[in-house]
Amino acid sequence: MSDSAPQNYANHTKMVAGYHYVTSPLAFAYLLWSIYRAFTLRDAESHFDLLGAAALFGAVAFARLFPLKAQDRLIRLEEQLRFSRILPADLASRVHELKPRQLIALRFASDAEVVELVRDVLAGTLTEPKQIKQRIKNWRADTFRV
Length: 146
Hints:
The chain has six helices and no strands. With about 150 residues, the chain is mostly helical.
């Protein structure tokens, strides 16, 4: 997504080229190659190589997953604080019923439309993050993501 284009459902995902298109595929390819070698050569060196490839792939995967989990926790906290400020009392008291993925999707909704969306989520009309994001008309950009 270019910095000049307004963020919306179609362009809100963030892809980091070096990670998503280079590092991750290379680590995965190395893991697959090591599995192949371990099962065809059946020697100690290829088995240790497989252990190293598995460790490398795990490190690459967790290097992405851990910051995303921390980011999700912060988003949940931010949205809970925001909702306590803008939702009517009947909805604010039920924020704890929202699933984390729903809260994370609702972060893109403007203050003006959050009430209606939260009502629909709590009523079970909207359940999936994709559905929630697609219903948002006035997108609040989130440009500080990891």
